Amino acid sequence: MDNGTPASYKIVPDGSITTPQGFRAGGLHCGLKKTTRHDLGAIVCEVPASAAGVYTTNVFQAAPLLVTRESIGRDGKLRAVLVNSGNANACTGKQGEADACKMRDTFAESIGVPAHHVAVASTGVIGELLKMDRVLEGIAQMPARLNGDKTGADDFSQAILTTDLVEKTVCVAVEIDGRTVHVAGAAKGSGMIHPNMATMLGFVTTDAAIGNESLQFLLRHATDLSFNMITVDGDTSTNDMLVAMASGLAGNEELTQRHPDWSKFADALRYVCEVLAKAIARDGEGATKLIEVRVRGALTDESARAIAKTVIGSSLVKSAVFGADANWGRIIAAVGRAGQPVNPETVDIRLGDITVLAQSRPVPFDEERALHYLKGDTVHIHVDLNYGEGEATGWGCDLTYDYVRINAAYRT
């Protein structure tokens, strides 16, 4: 996918998760974090919204994921999602499950909706029970904090952060059936990020009319091309989830694969997911650079994705980028160990527009020019296998001293 904005949709500069019709949001500090930053947030839809979810592949799935799967699985609808940061409620046994259900049921009652129309998400330290007295006090205050303007959206975006340095949001508009449809998203993620959903939470709102099954299909596809193509440290968490809600209030004809504007909406959703995914990669714990690896000429797209993820996940590649060292040997070594079909005689590698390898042979290049390029805040690595038509792009960040410092003291 091109990094630019296609003509089929446009970025809404001041947009947020409350821009799509029917959505309110809010956040507050209930006392789960040691700081005074918000740690409890919610998104609420005024009508039952079509809902879809994608979840971590980690075998140890946190209690909130179990509750959310159950909620969406009932009838494919949601009215709200409640999120806390500062505690993952993971590996907490039956008590953790009971606490997640209590969060869902209490919030549902406070806003007057069925319990199974509320999803729950948590992020933070694993293995500690939630301070439920503080959570319940926060839930009691939440309805009054919900609003449909950007303030509510900003409060929510802050409430979901852990070690993140910046909030991650995006909103686009697309014409469907001659009507303006909005697709917006907010996410958190900085560490324990690896393909197949990692420590990240993502929330997408849209006012498009689309059914649960169609939304699930598009969300899964968009995830494969975005969130599943990022890595920070190779660790996959217990709590990751991406939830999408569609209010249908834009008034378009229901989107299906037969709808003439299906691809336009799919592109908008994929763009929103890609922007959020890249923001997570750029905000990796201790990171100083965003790394983009574009693989072309692979046997298949799936093969290209596997190779891109191997290169972007290589600690040696990430360390070389941090040190601004044009060590292309680490790149080709990662390509070779990805377990995919490759002709070892036909690989080209570029750092930006600097060719360092052609047909698997070294190319003399200006070391000073390469050093200057690698000192920038975004590094593009291009790998052309010249072996097929498959292509893919992955994103990650450099590996720095600060990553170790942050994670050595995460619980303290």
Automatic annotation (TrEMBL):
GO terms for cellular component: cytoplasm. The record marks 198-199 as: Cleavage. Its EC number is 2.3.1.35, 2.3.1.1. It catalyses: L-glutamate + acetyl-CoA = N-acetyl-L-glutamate + CoA + H(+); N(2)-acetyl-L-ornithine + L-glutamate = N-acetyl-L-glutamate + L-ornithine. One of its GO terms (molecular function) is L-glutamate N-acetyltransferase activity. The record marks 123-124 as: Involved in the stabilization of negative charge on the oxyanion by the formation of the oxyanion hole. Keywords: Acyltransferase, Amino-acid biosynthesis, Arginine biosynthesis, Autocatalytic cleavage, Cytoplasm, Multifunctional enzyme, Transferase. Substrate binds at residues 162, 188, 199, 285, 407, 412. Pathway: Amino-acid biosynthesis; L-arginine biosynthesis; N(2)-acetyl-L-ornithine from L-glutamate: step 1/4; Amino-acid biosynthesis; L-arginine biosynthesis; L-ornithine and N-acetyl-L-glutamate from L-glutamate and N(2)-acetyl-L-ornithine (cyclic): step 1/1. SUPFAM superfamilies: DmpA/ArgJ-like (SSF56266). Signal peptide: none annotated. One of its GO terms (biological process) is L-arginine biosynthetic process. The active site is at residue 199. Its main location: cytoplasm. Heterotetramer of two alpha and two beta chains. Belongs to the ArgJ family. PANTHER family: ARGININE BIOSYNTHESIS BIFUNCTIONAL PROTEIN ARGJ, ARGININE BIOSYNTHESIS BIFUNCTIONAL PROTEIN ARGJ, MITOCHONDRIAL. This is Arginine biosynthesis bifunctional protein ArgJ.
